[in-house]
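Hey, quick one: can you model this chain's 3D structure?
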Amino acid sequence: MEWQAIVDFDGTISCRDTTDQILERFAAPAWQEVEQDWIDGKIGSRECMKRQVEMLRVSPGMLDSFIADIAIDWDFPAFVRLCMRHDIPVTVVSDGLDRTIRAVLNRAGLGFLPIVANHLDYAGEGRWQLTSPYASTTGGCDSGTCKCAVTDSLHRPLTLLVGDGKSDHCVAGQADLVFAKKGLITHCRDQGLPHHPFTDFSQAVGLLEDLLCTTARSGQARELTKDTING
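Sure thing. Here's the predicted structure for all 231 residues.
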């Protein structure tokens, strides 16, 4: 059966929300007021991120040096290797910043993974601007990256979502299976969505191995039934 893995970045691959880390270090304090507006539902995440990025004051060199120290779950590469062995494409789909994600994945030896995220562009004099090339074009989704639309565009019949938070809520309802961390666990429980809680990618590797074994056994059973009928 043809699975695809859609993996969130901030708080899932990375240990913390990397955009928050960058804002804490390089943005005007008012970024927190914008964050509160998003939490209160007054604005969507796309508008929130756009305003916050405009508050950054940092050179590209300083930003990249800061990103170089961002910590990730170092069992994530093992998860990717397991997926590759079983022909499961992995796509990192994030409502975060492409510059951060690409640098972190390159450092982990995973620069080959496709990244779908907001685009961070340097505007000069320490200023930055955000564009959202994967935002919804049909309305109904106020995220910078519409994960549901991205998942649909990948055209695999079965989707495994690995995520942790609010940006994963919509696609969790469409995925065939969810590996959930943190707030996504609560959402899945509240909505009655099938999911497996995990805390780190060492656990996710075990969960995926179990899934693959179950799928293999199901396939063998179908073949045995088919042979019996045809025999």
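One thing worth noting: Strands lie at 3-7, 90-97, 115-124, 127-131, 158-163, 177-180, 196-197.
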